[in-house]
């Protein structure tokens, strides 16, 4: 998952090169597309950060425990979001 996210981030950044259009509508559309792409890139960066942190925690033998409370993270949550660092309660 980490490699996939890295590749997607690099691809997205490469496709977000600024183009200049004389038409204001095209320019506005491009601006909106860049804003959406930036939002997606930020979300993927956060996910990648959580995946890498979860891998570190796994290597330490502490995977599955909330980083805030130390309590076990529910199995359903871990199955849905394996990179979860926190329990639902925290």
From TrEMBL:
Q: Which UniProt keywords apply?
A: Metal-binding, Zinc, Zinc-finger
Q: Name one Pfam family in it.
A: zf-dskA_traR
Keyword Zinc appears in the UniProt entry: yes
Domain (Zinc finger DksA/TraR C4-type) ranges: 61-88
What SUPFAM superfamilies does this protein's entry cite?
Answer: DnaK suppressor protein DksA, alpha-hairpin domain (SSF109635)
Zn finger spans (dksA C4-type): 66-90
User: PANTHER family in the record, alphabetically?
Assistant: RNA POLYMERASE-BINDING TRANSCRIPTION FACTOR DKSA, RNA POLYMERASE-BINDING TRANSCRIPTION FACTOR DKSA-RELATED
This chain belongs to which protein, by name?
DnaK suppressor protein
Q: Which species does the entry assign this protein to?
A: Pseudomonas syringae pv. pisi str. 1704B
């Amino acid at each position: 998952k980490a490699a996939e996210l890295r590749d997607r981030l690099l691809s997205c950044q490469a496709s977000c090169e600024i183009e200049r259009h004389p038409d204001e509508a095209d320019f506005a559309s491009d601006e909106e597309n860049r804003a959406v792409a930036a939002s997606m890139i930020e979300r993927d960066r956060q996910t990648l950060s959580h995946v890498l942190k979860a891998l570190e925690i796994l290597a330490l033998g502490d995977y599955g425990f909330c980083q805030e409370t130390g309590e076990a993270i529910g199995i359903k949550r871990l199955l849905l979001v394996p990179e979860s660092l926190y329990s639902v309660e925290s």
